[in-house]
Design a protein that fits this description.
This protein is of the alpha/beta class. It is built from 17 helices and 17 strands. It has a 7-stranded parallel β-sheet with strand order 8-7-3-2-1-10-9, with helices on one face. Helix 5 (about 185-200) packs parallel to helix 7 (about 255-265), helix 8 (about 280-290) packs parallel to helix 10 and helix 13 (about 370-385) runs parallel beside helix 17 (about 470-485). The longest helix has 18 residues, at about 310-325. The radius of gyration is 23 Å and the shape is globular.
Length: about 550
């Protein structure tokens, strides 16, 4: 491995108000033309991130995987999937990112492994009661012949969270059956992940995004507890039990793990950063973001909020308070690899069931693409004005909509099969990016793409928007460049004299953000318009519907 200089930043707190760009590597850029994005493809396109003005690259899983869950089924946490490249390719990517001034954050997946992981293969060979099985959660079944699952625990992807093996025992998988859960009560599991964190940190990685951070520890005391009518997934499951007491979500013991990890992060200079993916209520989320644990946690309330001024103001206020209570900075996100892209989602009528909409191919209800993009641009400019870190998902800077009409026969997400073709899954936000308006995969690679791209992608391509005044790409570039100049402090002051349906606040240094969430123009307060998500109306003193402006 080359001797990589630590070029992450001279400021160890760079992450507190960073713009982090998420790359889903299999859909970003394909350097070898096999239809699957790869590490060399990422390296070749890093100049796009630098030109955009991002501070960091977050790389979704690139590890060896059978792709039972888009790479989140990891067979080796300390290697690169050979279809995506080699460790040398990874080192070259990190070196190029640092040369361009970009930090590198990688996904770490500690809750489970792939069924192809050597540990799980050993567990299957070794049989009941073996030391190898103790690294996972194996149990005998219930019923006269052990034919029933050990508990009623349910998989996030649908169905029982238990799968029976030929010798009669059952193993736990909170996600796909190909993703057996690790037993975090086992010291060998904890030690192995310490090694993994050091392995990637030593290669120059600046931080980690911790997948399913709230699910590592479980109550494995016998007899295992049923969940009953509490529910099995999401925050709704946690609202019905005392905090920290759910059998397998957000248990208090998980914080011992992250305090242990923080000692490893702080051994580096500057310290390695981390952000938790923890689907828990705000007060509990603050625990993961404490300075002696991961330091930051994803706030999904902004993503989930309706396009409503009162709701958004409350979400923003609560999120900032939660972050302050933890000594962390807030995080903001509108799109990622697991949700409908916000250029489509934000224009769906209130109460729309997104899965039903996806099953209809995006036709019921029909979506106005222009209206959706206008609202998405306004939401993004609002997000980028907020104190804290903004996480962008690849392609949102192009205004990409959800590809809702993917044919059922091309779907790859295990949710489709595991729910018996009831939930369509997340493939629509993972369609490979368009870089050019022409070519077999719109510049994604010399061959085709692993998921089909719609013809409309030609107009969204990077080359089609590059240098075009008013394009979504140029809006993002201008916003990120301006944001770096304006950022000062981590607070905001709400304006109290705004019309109904309008959000307005001031940031340190005196600049302001105003968002009109109504369907009629509103008069702007005095000030010089620095940037707006859509052209200002009239003489520039009127803010149109679904528009955000930054004012000096």
């Amino acid at each position: 491995m080359p001797d990589l200089p630590d070029l992450s930043s001279r400021n160890p707190d760079w992450w507190r108000q960073a713009v982090v760009y998420q790359v889903y590597p299999r859909s970003f850029a394909d350097a070898d033309g096999d239809g699957l994005g790869d590490i060399r493809g990422v390296t070749e396109r890093l100049t796009h991130l630098a030109a955009l003005g991002a501070d960091a690259l977050w790389l979704s899983p690139f590890y060896p995987s059978e792709l039972a869950d888009g790479g989140y089924d990891v067979a080796d946490h300390r290697d690169v999937d050979p279809r995506l490249g080699t460790l040398d390719d990874f080192d070259a990517m990190v070196a190029e990112a640092h040369r361009l001034g970009l930090k590198v954050i990688v996904d770490i997946v500690p809750n489970h492994t792939s069924r192809r992981h050597p540990w799980f293969e050993e567990a299957l060979r070794s049989g009941p009661g073996s030391a190898a099985r103790d690294r996972y959660v194996f149990r005998d079944g219930r019923g006269a012949h052990g034919e029933l699952p050990p508990t009623d625990w349910q998989s996030v992807f649908g169905g029982s969270a238990w799968r029976r093996v030929p010798d009669g025992q059952w193993y736990l998988h909170l996600f796909a059956p190909e993703q057996p859960d690790l037993n975090w009560d086992h010291e060998e599991v904890r030690a192995d992940f310490r090694t993994t964190l050091r392995f990637w940190s030593d290669r120059g990685v600046d931080g980690f995004r911790v997948d399913v951070a709230h699910a590592l520890t479980k109550d494995l005391t016998e007899p295992l507890r049923d969940v009953g009518d509490v529910g099995a997934t999401g925050e709704e499951a946690l609202d019905h039990v005392p905090p920290g007491s759910h059998p397998y979500y957000d248990r208090d013991e998980v914080h011992e793990i992250y305090r242990d990890w923080r000692k490893i992060f702080d051994a580096y200079s500057p310290p390695r950063t981390a952000v938790a993916e923890a689907w828990v209520p705000g007060a509990r989320r603050a625990l993961y973001a404490r300075p002696d644990e991961l330091g930051q946690a994803f706030n999904f309330e902004y993503l989930q909020a309706r396009w409503d001024a009162d709701e958004l103001r409350q979400v923003i206020t609560d999120s900032l308070a939660t972050a302050r209570a933890a000594g962390a900075s807030a995080t903001w996100v509108l799109s990622n690899h697991d949700v409908v892209r916000h250029a489509s989602r934000l224009t769906l009528p209130p109460g729309t069931d997104e899965n039903t909409w996806l099953l209809s191919g995006g036709h019921a209800p029909a979506v106005d693409a222009d209206a959706g993009l206008r609202r998405a641009r306004a939401a993004t400019l609002l997000m980028l004005a907020l104190p804290g870190s903004s996480y962008l998902y690849q392609g949102e800077e192009l205004g990409l909509p959800e590809v809702a009409d993917l044919p059922f026969e091309v779907l790859q997400d295990p949710i489709w099969e595991q729910t018996g073709h009831v939930r369509k899954g997340r493939d629509g936000c993972r369609v490979p990016l368009p870089w050019t308006p022409t070519g077999p995969s719109y510049g994604f690679g010399a061959g085709g793409a692993w998921l089909p791209q719609p013809a409309s992608f030609a107009s969204y391509a990077v080359a089609a928007q590059d240098g075009v005044a008013g394009s979504t790409l140029e809006l993002y570039r201008t916003a990120l460049r301006l944001r770096r100049k304006l950022l000062e402090g981590e607070g905001l002051t709400w304006a109290e004299d705004t019309p109904a349906g309008v959000l307005a606040f001031a940031r340190s240094g005196g600049w302001r953000c105003v968002t009109n969430l109504t369907d009629a123009p509103v008069v702007l307060p005095p000030g010089e318009a620095l940037l707006s998500s859509a052209p200002l109306d009239g003489d520039g003193r009127s803010l149109g519907p679904d528009t955000t402006v930054w004012l000096a």
